[in-house]
Amino acid sequence: MNPITNTQSYSQETASSFNGHPSIESVALDRPTAQENGFTVRGRVIDTGRYEIIVRKNKVLVKDRHTNTKFKVWGDPHLKTGDGDKAQFHDDNLTIDLEDGTKLTIKVTDMNKKGVSHIDSVAVTRGEHGVEAVGIHGRSKRLKIIDNLNGADLDKRYDDGTVMYAGHQVDDLFFAEDGQELVGRDRSQRFNEHQLDGRGGESRYSSYSLGTNEPIGIPEDQTPCDPDEPIRVPDNNDQTDMMEKFIDMLRDMLNAFSSMFNMVFPQSQDGNNNNPQSNTEVFACAEER
After folding, report:
1. pTM of the entire predicted model
2. Cβ(47)–Cβ(35) under 8 Å?
3. Over the range 16-26, which residues count as b (16 or more CB within 10 Å of their CB) and which as e?
4. Which secondary structure element, helix H or strand E, spans residue 21, and what is its range?
5. Crossing angle of helices 279-288 and 238-264, rounded to 10°
6. Which of 2, 161, 237, 275 could crosslink 93 through cysteines, CB 3.0-4.6 Å?
7. Of 160, 157, 115, 120, nearest to 141 (Cα)?
8. What's phi and psi for 282, nearest 5 deg?
9. Contact between residue 170 and residue 134 where contact means Cβ atoms under 8 Å apart
């Protein structure tokens, strides 16, 4: 089937507002339509053919149709994969190369007086084609998705920052700097999340050449999933996020209580604590169950 080649001088689709936020605008400039460039924009969804990039106020969600996996970036900003890997970034942008040749770059705002930044805008490019989402943070700003941009020009306006690439499943993310996979959590960092700032790396996809990005292969140390084997997707919803934060808060409270307890009831002279198993250890055992 021949690609659709008609052009649009200007089109605007306004979706209904949600969660009390301003309406969404999808704007197409005077370039070939989304069907020709491989991206289809429907309201707040940027469809690459394989992936759905869903942009909302203060949140970006990426879903992989082929493997039924996902990751999301939200807030100030945090990242969480469908299988529970967690990270955060504040100073640097975040670029993620997807397996179908799509480059996703998330730009952060300048830090406010409290040292907090948020998601400012998103650039989605593949070869010479691009889509930009702006106005993601701030109730006073209207969320707009601008379609049919020149991918090279859009890519030049976005610093890559820290670069990662997705494996065969989009919830498997690897650092371009050294190929290391983002796994689990980092309890030495705030919120027990890996720190993404300052990792650098180079994107495998460059729109500067105005060519079509070639899809990357599966990393050598990663085996494709068996198509006949059912895919298990953990049920990680917002309630799970709240529960994990609540558990972290309880752990901090128990640590503080344990310190106060040791001050009031110091250890015996032989160095042994009268309480052989601390509150923190009991809590950790309960959490492992």
Report:
1. 0.64
2. no
3. eeeeebbebbb
4. none
5. 160
6. 161
7. 120
8. -60, -40
9. no
List the structure tokens of 166: 């997705």
d(CA 10, CA 7): 9
Query: For residue 87, what is the DSSP state?
Result: E
The tens place of each residue's pLDDT in the chain, 289 residues long, gives: 333 333 333 233 333 333 444 445 555 443 434 444 468 999 999 999 999 999 999 999 999 999 999 999 999 999 999 999 999 999 999 999 999 999 999 999 999 999 899 999 999 999 889 999 999 998 878 999 999 999 999 999 999 999 999 999 999 999 999 999 999 999 898 889 999 999 999 999 875 444 445 554 444 444 344 444 444 444 444 555 566 667 777 777 877 777 777 777 776 555 555 554 444 444 444 444 4
Amino acid at the residue 200:
G
- Specify which residues 97 forms β-bridges with: 103, 165
Strand-pair category, 94-97 with 129-134: unpaired
Tokens encoding 146: 């601008």
CA angle 36, 37, 42 (to 5 degrees): 90
Position 69, amino acid: T
Strand 59-64 vs strand 69-74: parallel, antiparallel, or unpaired? antiparallel
